[in-house]
Write a structure and sequence with these properties.
The longest helix has 34 residues, at 120-153. The protein has a domain at 47-237. The mean pLDDT is 80. The chain has helices at 14-17, 21-45, 50-55, 69-78, 85-88, 96-116, 120-153, 174-201, 205-225, 228-233, 257-287, 297-329, 331-342, 346-352, 360-376, 383-401. It is mostly helical. The protein has 16 helices and no strands.
Length: 402
Amino acid sequence: MVIEVVPDSQTLHISKLRKRWQILFLQIIATGSLLTIMRRMSDLYGSCSETFIAGAGGVNYWCPSYEHTRGLQWMSRNSDLVLPDFLSGINETGFDAFIAPLILCFVITVAFIILMGRSEKIQKNIKRVLSIAIVAWIALPFLLSWLIGIVTYGGFYLPIGNNDPNMDHVALIFQPLKFIFELVFLGIVFAPILAGLIGIWGLSKRMLTWAVGYFLMIIGIHAMLTFEGITQAVDVGLNPLPAQIGEATLFGGLISPLAFELLSIALLLLVFLEAGLAVITNLEYASLLPEGSKKDPEYVNQFNNVLNGHLWHLIGIMSLVGLTTAMALEFDDFLIGFVGALEGSQWSGQVRESLELQLTYGKVISAGLFMVVIAGGRFVIPWQRFTGFIETNIRKLVSRDV
């Protein structure tokens, strides 16, 4: 009896699976989605309102938008920054302002992954060294400057509240605090990017979900702070999105430009989370297999089929979600046209020209009606046979590739 042998490169060991093209492809998709989310979010939520800018005189203003250079420029006008300009991108415009911080995020991610691959003892030693370095940075410049001042001026004095600014050494303690505030402004944009990269390449579900939650929090806070009732009381300067979705002009009248921007962010979030979690879930499954099963041809073929099927489902389902969502957003136009076709009266013309369904609550109502229509379609269209036919053909294609 001939025993089929699986090549060493095709076994289900984690070190081998990390090099599989399917795993790398999912990680690259998740990384690309994450970076595209950052770019789309910056374009959509990264500007201040024109009235707020005009009220601030056009200079030295800041609003809590999804952008980092404006806050750093505001800090630099008051004092020198601890971070170098080339690293923060403060002097750059457009996407160039993101390049250096993004490179820093990738470097930190690589360092984190290398650190996690070391023994627990080495990790503890590195953490202790970093903690000691931070404490030394806070305390040593202050203490050394104070001691040198005591020797220079020939007597003891308090390091605060002196007429001579050279004797106020306590200001050195605030340098690390200033650095922390600079990191906060950078973190507005790049904290979810760093968390997402660590989640993708460091295989951390918590980091992935944290990054998605952060993006959703930014969208929710922006929606609340730009609500008309809020802006009338307190205007923080955020640029509100249009109240109406707009006319569908893209893809043959399927979706409006604003709806496409919002839908693309939602789909990118889903792709980022789904691709990242798929890698972690499949690798967790492989790590739990017995040693003999990791070399078993049946287990290897099953794992390959699961990975290939996941790629097909990711592309197909996300495309279907995007298409149906776009149709749901434009279902109000279908309703207005349908009513107008049934009745030729003045009332139908008023319904056709009505703007109520174009507003936010109208879109929600019409999208809900669309879901009801699709759900009711199961009594007319055999959805299970239809989807089963598609899945069967996909499995045939995948089995041929394997």
